[in-house]
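Open question from group meeting: does this chain pack into something compact, or does most of it stay loose? Before anyone orders reagents, we agreed to write out a predicted structure and look at it together. Recording both the input and the output here so the notebook holds the full record.
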Amino acid sequence: MNLIHATAIIDAGAQIGTGTRVWHWVHISASAVIGDDCSLGQSVYVGNDVHIGRNVKIQNNVSVYDGVTLEDEVFCGPSMVFTNVYNPRSGVSRKSEYRKTLVRRGATLGANCTIVCGVTIGCYAFIGAGAVVNRNVPDFALMLGVPARPAGWMSRHGERLKFVGSTATCATTGEKYMLREGLCILVEASQ
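Structure tokens returned:
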């Protein structure tokens, strides 16, 4: 069963999965697709050409514009920003130029970060609060700053990995990770 607050506006045709919670003053557009067990916080907007997986958490004041796909278990922090036009002008219509943004499974987008359109955020990547992402982000990468730069690696559990040579272990789960050709790879998952 879904929990939908009385102030929410859900346009006819929107698809909302079972167990999803829609809070105060949310607007979900007609062609949006939202998976099971999601949470959309206060004042969230979801555009038409938006696909949201299952167990996604979108905190207050986030607009998910056309062209954005959030895979399963993505976390969008309070007031973080998506864009869909690279070079907007009020007097120039660029709806035919929307750039797609893909946020892969388990990624975290910190409070007040900005994701410039046309990028892919890798699985379990962690974008720090206030960072500005303007290029693709690899799986498990920790990205900080303006513009966002690599600052380390994060486990699936959200713990910063400490590499000894080319290997690291998540302090919480015991999962094993390896650096290979400049990328972090999960080599042994927890049960």
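Observations to bring back to the group:
The mean pLDDT is 97.
Residues 34 and 52 are 5 Å apart (CA to CA).
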